[in-house]
Specification:
elongated, disordered C terminus, 4-stranded antiparallel β-sheet, 1% helix, Complement Module, domain 1, disordered N terminus, mainly beta, sushi
């Protein structure tokens, strides 16, 4: 190489990863790095680029001046993408960009991407940008995409407000496709749908029903009754769980009024009392008569409301039905009067008599043999039936049942030993 003034010099040899930039003094450069892949702002760093290699100084003889020393400089090629993303030395292409539920890739995807290439996304309908992650990702030296996070989130329906009630969200948020459950405070009832769903239509979200309301539970007066009254009868409206009590007026005749029904009523729901109002009236039941039996309670000429009578049957009869019975509000005995049924006695094989509902044990007879004592009994079926089938292996019915008075069946079973 020939310098100005005819002096000859030799071109310096730079390292393998640099190129010759000429002769100059070392400099300090301001380097602006690209956007950080994690979404941070670009930064400026004052960086002294790698110093020039140590080469011997060369003499130059510029015209009309003396000799001076100069220093050759070598320019270095620096990958700013690598500086920005950290030290990544592995190289490789990236394949398909990542798929996201909340975002769609802009443009047409390529078969492969070079390290440092970036692709961009946009939020899907029903989603909004979170500003927490970028709407892009780039190919790293290792052949992977970074970042790979959802940058958009689902739109939410407006938070419903229910005075005198509460809103419960099982999924924590009111995003579309999620439910909101509504409940009212004590003394209030829900008017409207209890469960609402946040729905998506196009890019808009909305509740599928109107927001319900919590209304105060009120009951109108339960009403007046003949020959009686209730407490707080001057009021027209009662609140939830308030109580009224009915009572009967004194009678003008020889018989007192009986309160038939519930005396205490509670406001249990919107416009609903716990029961219908009672009645105040004279109730009298005639003395009960039981054929083949008698009353064991004190007998009177007339019985009043809810008076009780118990019975027993004469000897040779058994009681069938309810015992005791009560004088009801319609001047009749409730429940239905019982009856006395004659006991039936049948001769069994051993010559003994047994009564309905009783049993005894005896030995087997005929062609059946058993070391066990068998039982005989008298039962009252609801209708005439065939003999019961043997209910254990090896048992036989020794004779068919005899259908007797009142359809009473009698049979004996013995176990045959083989």
């Amino acid at each position: 190489m020939t310098a100005s003034g005819g002096a000859r010099t030799t071109s310096p040899r730079c390292p393998e990863n640099a190129h010759f930039d000429g002769f100059s003094a070392p400099v300090t450069r301001i380097v602006e790095l690209p956007t950080d892949p994690r979404g941070l702002e670009p930064i400026k760093e004052r960086a002294a680029f790698p110093p020039a290699p140590r080469l011997s100084t060369l003499g130059m003889a510029p015209p009309s001046r003396g000799r001076r020393e100069v220093t050759p400089t070598c320019g270095y090629f620096v990958s700013l993408a690598i500086v920005a993303s950290g030290v990544r030395t592995r190289k490789g292409d990236c394949r398909n960009p990542p798929f996201f539920e909340s975002m769609t890739l802009k443009g047409t995807p390529k078969a492969s991407y070079l390290p440092g290439e970036r692709v961009y996304y946009e939020c899907n309908k029903g989603y909004v940008y979170s500003y927490y992650y970028p709407l892009s990702t780039f190919c790293e030296q290792a052949g992977t995409w970074y970042p790979a996070d959802e940058a958009c989130y689902k739109k939410k329906c407006p938070t419903p407000k229910v005075p005198n009630g509460e809103v419960y969200d099982p999924q924590i948020t009111f995003e579309f496709d999620k439910e909101a459950h509504f409940y009212c405070n004590y003394g209030y009832y829900l008017k409207g749908a209890q469960i609402l769903t946040c729905q998506l239509s196009g890019d808009n979200v909305f509740w599928n029903y109107d927001i319900p309301t919590c209304e105060k539970i009120l009951c109108k007066s339960p009403g007046k009754i003949s020959n009686g009254k209730h407490t707080n009868n001057w009021r027209d409206v009662f609140e939830f769980n308030e109580l009224v009590t009915y009572s009967c007026d004194p009678s003008n005749g020889p018989e007192e009024y009986s309160l038939v029904g519930e005396s205490k009523l509670v406001c249990s729901g919107p416009g609903k009392w716990s029961s219908d109002p009672p009645q105040c009236k004279v109730v009298q039941c005639e003395p009960p008569v039981l054929k083949h039996g008698k009353a064991i309670s004190e007998m009177k000429d007339k019985f009043s409301y809810k008076d009780e009578v118990k019975f027993e049957c004469l000897k040779g009869f058994y009681l069938n039905g309810s015992n005791p019975v009560y004088c009801g509000g319609n001047n009749t005995w409730e429940p239905e009067m019982p009856t006395c049924i004659k006991e039936i006695r049948e001769k069994n094989n051993s010559g003994k008599s047994i009564s309905l509902g009783s049993s005894h044990s005896g030995p087997c007879f005929g062609s059946a043999y058993s070391r066990n004592i068998i039982s005989e009994g008298c039962v009252k079926p609801t209708r005439a039936t065939k003999p019961p089938l043997a209910n254990y292996p090896g048992s036989v019915a020794l004779h068919p049942p005899s259908i007797v008075e009142n359809f009473v069946s009698l049979w004996v079973k013995c176990q045959v030993l083989f």
